[in-house]
Amino acid sequence: MPELFALPASQRLRFFFWLQLLLLLTVLLLLGIYSEQITIWLIAAWPKLLGAAGLNQLAQHLQQGLDGGIAKRPLPAVATYAALYLLTCLLLLRLVLSAAQWRVALRIYALGLVLYVLITILAKLAGNVQWAYRLSRRLLDFIVSPLPVAGLYVLLRSGFGPAAVRDRDAGPVE
Protein backbone atom coordinates (compact mmCIF):
# COMPACT_ATOMS: atom_id res chain seq x y z
CA MET A 1 0.00 0.00 0.00
CA PRO A 2 2.90 2.45 0.52
CA GLU A 3 3.44 2.33 -3.28
CA LEU A 4 -0.07 3.71 -3.74
CA PHE A 5 0.79 6.87 -1.85
CA ALA A 6 3.96 7.29 -3.92
CA LEU A 7 1.80 7.68 -7.05
CA PRO A 8 0.94 11.13 -8.38
CA ALA A 9 -2.30 12.60 -7.03
CA SER A 10 -4.20 12.12 -10.31
CA GLN A 11 -3.42 8.39 -10.38
CA ARG A 12 -4.39 8.02 -6.71
CA LEU A 13 -7.71 9.77 -7.41
CA ARG A 14 -8.34 7.47 -10.37
CA PHE A 15 -7.51 4.42 -8.23
CA PHE A 16 -9.91 5.51 -5.46
CA PHE A 17 -12.62 6.32 -8.03
CA TRP A 18 -12.44 2.80 -9.45
CA LEU A 19 -12.29 1.31 -5.96
CA GLN A 20 -15.44 3.21 -4.93
CA LEU A 21 -17.17 2.26 -8.17
CA LEU A 22 -16.34 -1.41 -7.67
CA LEU A 23 -17.48 -1.29 -4.04
CA LEU A 24 -20.83 0.36 -4.88
CA LEU A 25 -21.49 -1.99 -7.79
CA THR A 26 -20.71 -4.95 -5.53
CA VAL A 27 -23.09 -3.65 -2.84
CA LEU A 28 -25.79 -3.10 -5.46
CA LEU A 29 -25.27 -6.60 -6.85
CA LEU A 30 -25.36 -8.18 -3.38
CA LEU A 31 -28.51 -6.24 -2.43
CA GLY A 32 -30.14 -7.58 -5.57
CA ILE A 33 -28.98 -11.17 -5.21
CA TYR A 34 -29.71 -11.45 -1.50
CA SER A 35 -32.83 -9.27 -1.38
CA GLU A 36 -34.97 -12.07 0.03
CA GLN A 37 -32.49 -12.95 2.78
CA ILE A 38 -31.92 -9.28 3.65
CA THR A 39 -35.67 -8.68 3.85
CA ILE A 40 -36.16 -11.74 6.08
CA TRP A 41 -33.39 -10.49 8.37
CA LEU A 42 -34.97 -7.01 8.47
CA ILE A 43 -38.40 -8.54 9.22
CA ALA A 44 -36.83 -10.29 12.22
CA ALA A 45 -34.80 -7.26 13.35
CA TRP A 46 -37.45 -4.53 13.16
CA PRO A 47 -39.83 -5.89 15.83
CA LYS A 48 -36.90 -6.10 18.25
CA LEU A 49 -35.88 -2.51 17.49
CA LEU A 50 -39.43 -1.20 17.67
CA GLY A 51 -40.07 -3.16 20.86
CA ALA A 52 -36.97 -1.69 22.47
CA ALA A 53 -38.20 1.79 21.51
CA GLY A 54 -41.76 1.04 22.64
CA LEU A 55 -43.23 1.57 19.17
CA ASN A 56 -44.65 -1.90 18.42
CA GLN A 57 -48.26 -0.72 18.49
CA LEU A 58 -47.55 2.15 16.10
CA ALA A 59 -45.95 -0.18 13.56
CA GLN A 60 -48.86 -2.64 13.81
CA HIS A 61 -51.35 0.19 13.34
CA LEU A 62 -49.56 1.42 10.19
CA GLN A 63 -49.39 -2.10 8.77
CA GLN A 64 -53.11 -2.74 9.36
CA GLY A 65 -54.01 0.26 7.22
CA LEU A 66 -52.20 -1.13 4.18
CA ASP A 67 -53.83 -3.26 1.54
CA GLY A 68 -52.22 -6.62 0.75
CA GLY A 69 -51.64 -5.40 -2.81
CA ILE A 70 -49.14 -2.82 -1.68
CA ALA A 71 -47.20 -4.52 1.11
CA LYS A 72 -47.41 -8.16 2.06
CA ARG A 73 -44.45 -7.71 4.40
CA PRO A 74 -43.96 -5.42 7.39
CA LEU A 75 -43.62 -1.82 6.28
CA PRO A 76 -40.45 -0.96 8.29
CA ALA A 77 -38.53 -3.89 6.79
CA VAL A 78 -39.60 -3.13 3.23
CA ALA A 79 -38.91 0.59 3.65
CA THR A 80 -35.46 -0.09 5.10
CA TYR A 81 -34.50 -2.37 2.21
CA ALA A 82 -35.80 0.17 -0.33
CA ALA A 83 -33.88 2.97 1.41
CA LEU A 84 -30.64 0.95 1.40
CA TYR A 85 -31.05 0.15 -2.29
CA LEU A 86 -31.94 3.74 -3.22
CA LEU A 87 -29.04 5.11 -1.19
CA THR A 88 -26.63 2.79 -2.99
CA CYS A 89 -28.07 3.77 -6.38
CA LEU A 90 -27.84 7.49 -5.59
CA LEU A 91 -24.27 7.16 -4.31
CA LEU A 92 -23.35 5.30 -7.48
CA LEU A 93 -24.91 8.02 -9.63
CA ARG A 94 -23.16 10.71 -7.58
CA LEU A 95 -19.85 9.02 -8.24
CA VAL A 96 -20.25 8.78 -12.03
CA LEU A 97 -22.18 11.99 -12.79
CA SER A 98 -21.24 15.62 -12.43
CA ALA A 99 -22.89 17.61 -9.64
CA ALA A 100 -25.42 19.23 -11.99
CA GLN A 101 -26.30 15.90 -13.63
CA TRP A 102 -26.67 14.28 -10.23
CA ARG A 103 -29.13 16.98 -9.16
CA VAL A 104 -31.21 16.21 -12.26
CA ALA A 105 -31.08 12.48 -11.45
CA LEU A 106 -32.06 13.20 -7.84
CA ARG A 107 -35.07 15.22 -9.05
CA ILE A 108 -36.14 12.39 -11.34
CA TYR A 109 -35.91 9.89 -8.48
CA ALA A 110 -37.87 12.27 -6.23
CA LEU A 111 -40.51 12.68 -8.92
CA GLY A 112 -40.86 8.90 -9.20
CA LEU A 113 -41.24 8.52 -5.44
CA VAL A 114 -43.79 11.35 -5.24
CA LEU A 115 -45.75 9.74 -8.07
CA TYR A 116 -45.68 6.44 -6.18
CA VAL A 117 -46.99 8.08 -3.00
CA LEU A 118 -49.72 9.96 -4.91
CA ILE A 119 -50.95 6.82 -6.68
CA THR A 120 -50.98 4.94 -3.37
CA ILE A 121 -52.93 7.70 -1.61
CA LEU A 122 -55.39 8.01 -4.49
CA ALA A 123 -55.93 4.24 -4.48
CA LYS A 124 -56.65 4.37 -0.75
CA LEU A 125 -59.02 7.33 -1.11
CA ALA A 126 -60.84 5.65 -3.99
CA GLY A 127 -61.65 2.63 -1.84
CA ASN A 128 -58.66 0.32 -2.24
CA VAL A 129 -58.62 0.24 -6.05
CA GLN A 130 -56.55 -2.83 -6.90
CA TRP A 131 -55.25 -1.70 -10.30
CA ALA A 132 -53.85 1.48 -8.72
CA TYR A 133 -52.12 -0.51 -5.99
CA ARG A 134 -50.61 -2.81 -8.62
CA LEU A 135 -49.48 0.21 -10.65
CA SER A 136 -47.87 1.85 -7.63
CA ARG A 137 -46.20 -1.43 -6.68
CA ARG A 138 -44.75 -1.83 -10.19
CA LEU A 139 -43.53 1.77 -10.11
CA LEU A 140 -41.79 1.15 -6.79
CA ASP A 141 -40.28 -2.10 -8.07
CA PHE A 142 -38.89 -0.15 -11.03
CA ILE A 143 -37.50 2.64 -8.84
CA VAL A 144 -35.81 0.11 -6.54
CA SER A 145 -33.94 -1.62 -9.37
CA PRO A 146 -30.73 -1.04 -11.32
CA LEU A 147 -32.64 0.08 -14.44
CA PRO A 148 -33.02 3.75 -13.43
CA VAL A 149 -29.30 3.93 -12.60
CA ALA A 150 -28.29 2.62 -16.02
CA GLY A 151 -30.91 4.69 -17.83
CA LEU A 152 -30.10 7.93 -16.03
CA TYR A 153 -26.38 7.42 -16.54
CA VAL A 154 -26.80 6.91 -20.28
CA LEU A 155 -29.32 9.73 -20.69
CA LEU A 156 -27.44 12.30 -18.65
CA ARG A 157 -24.00 11.45 -20.02
CA SER A 158 -25.31 11.60 -23.60
CA GLY A 159 -26.61 15.15 -23.16
CA PHE A 160 -30.20 14.75 -21.96
CA GLY A 161 -31.25 17.47 -19.58
CA PRO A 162 -31.52 21.22 -19.44
CA ALA A 163 -29.12 23.20 -21.61
CA ALA A 164 -27.69 24.85 -18.50
CA VAL A 165 -26.63 21.46 -17.15
CA ARG A 166 -24.95 20.49 -20.41
CA ASP A 167 -23.21 23.87 -20.73
CA ARG A 168 -21.90 23.86 -17.15
CA ASP A 169 -20.56 20.34 -17.49
CA ALA A 170 -18.93 20.88 -20.86
CA GLY A 171 -15.98 22.72 -19.37
CA PRO A 172 -13.91 25.34 -21.14
CA VAL A 173 -14.14 25.56 -24.91
CA GLU A 174 -10.81 25.03 -26.59
Describe what this molecule looks like in 3D.
It contains 9 helices and no strands. The protein is an all-alpha fold and 174 residues long. The protein has one domain. The two termini are 38 Å apart. Keywords: Membrane, Transmembrane, Transmembrane helix. The chain crosses the membrane at residues 15-34, 40-58, 78-102, 108-127, 139-156.
Structure summarized in a few sentences:
This protein is an all-alpha fold and 174 residues long. The protein is built from 9 helices and no strands. It has one domain.
Q: Determine Rg (CA atoms, Å).
A: 20 Å
Number of domains: 1
Structural class by sheet pairing and helices: mainly alpha
The stretches of 5 or more residues where confidence is low (pLDDT under 50) are 170-174
Helix content: over 70%
Distance between the termini: 38 Å
How many helices? The count is 9
Shape: globular
Strand-residue proportion: under 5%
String of helices and strands: HHHHHHHHH
**What kind of sheet is the major sheet?**
none
Query: If you average the pLDDT, what whole number results?
Result: 81
Number of strands: 0
Transmembrane segments: 15-34, 40-58, 78-102, 108-127, 139-156
Keywords: Membrane, Transmembrane, Transmembrane helix
